[in-house]
Amino acid sequence: MRHVRQAAGALRTLASSYPCVRVTAVRALAAHGGPQGPQGPQAGLVWARHHSDGPSVAGEAGVCHKTDTVVLNPKRSDEMSFPFVWLRDNCQCSECFHQDSQSRTIIMESFNINSKPETLKITQDSLCIYWSDGHVSTYNIEWLQKHAFSTSAQQNWLTNMYRLPRKTWTAKSFSSILSRFKYSDVIKSDAVLYNWLVNLATYGVSIIEDAPAKDTTVRSIAERVAFIRKTHYGEEFSVRAKPGTTNVAYLSANLQLHTDLPYYNYKPGVNLLHCLVQTESDGGANLLTDALAVAEWLKRDCSSSYHALTTTVVDWNDIGQEDGNYFHSIHRAPVICEDRFGVVERINFSQPQRDSHFNVPLEKVKPWYEAMDKFTKGIYSSNFCVSYKMKEGDILTFDNIRLVHGRKKYEDTAKAVRHVIGGYLDWDEIWSRIRVLKNNFRTA
Ligand SMILES: [Zn+2]
């Protein structure tokens, strides 16, 4: 708290223009038994305590002019520091913030980033700041705690509200992580809807069972969350063998492991595959691998391969037509995409949809293929890859940003038909639904 001590002086002078605060400050210092009284090193703190006989005591507040921060509860384990500029920018008054839309209304163009507090006043549940520009801001203490700059407060928000932590799985742990939910429960119950989405976010895969054998079932589930994500293949798409197709998914041969639509910059986030008719022949099972787990394994096992796959930009494309609508899509990105913190955020993997244009220096080509070979062996290995044959009425839901999926070949004859209807959801919408549900449960 050295910096707070160094703030002595400035506030004391300012406080004198607000007698009530000065009085409480002196009283509080006396009660605190400060070794040097109001003239001592802590005199820069302007604080107030509740003098009721209740068990709780309001915290203290001070300013540090070295770091330009307001410090709440100095020297205590729950000490929090807030930059002046952030506090002024996040004033919650009706002039600065519109409650109904939860939106800041301060005009940035005329905002003074150098406003300073003249006086602080703290009560049981609020902090009041009198600013140098004459403005007065009041902040709820609980609100400040939630928006604190401490690692724990920020981590809490990032993992509980922003994104839930992902947990990787292997072939061995697949059966223990695979969750199943009844279609009717997902439709009727917000708690079940929430649990399904949380499982999907955590493990990247979950199954909805006993879904009605209707063409509209995938849409009903998508609309329970948000809305179906349209692509150049339309909204719902039907997967069954059809001759003369432009997409290999519509063939009954083996379908290699892949992510869907890597050629989209905004790639659809989640696949919903509803099994209407399953082939009675052998085959037709889906293959699934948690490519995030394989990427982590590759990073540990062969960092040069991992580096090649995270830094070599690949061209992904899709050229064709659907119902007479022609498309030519291209997206350029590595196979394993890391975010700015080095965390894997997206896997792109599709043998048929990798362009022959490979816009990298000559010497990068062979090392990339070597790395790709290693990664491919990983995603197909029995350590990581599982097979799951959907039952009629199953909706297999999985993360298209993280998992790779494929299908074993099957005989498509009059007796052995397979019909799956698919659709997509976007993660932005899923995260939004998770947060809305979570907040509803909290306030219920
Ligand atoms: Zn304001």
Automatic annotation (TrEMBL):
Keyword annotations of the record: Carnitine biosynthesis, Dioxygenase, Iron, Metal-binding, Oxidoreductase
GO molecular function terms noted in the UniProt entry: 2-oxoglutarate-dependent dioxygenase activity; metal ion binding
Segments forming domain TauD/TfdA-like: 180-422
GO biological process terms held by the UniProt record: carnitine biosynthetic process
TM annotation in the entry: none
A cellular-component GO term for this protein: mitochondrion
Family classification: Belongs to the gamma-BBH/TMLD family.
Name this protein carries in UniProt: Gamma-butyrobetaine dioxygenase
Source species of the chain: Megalurothrips usitatus (bean blossom thrips)
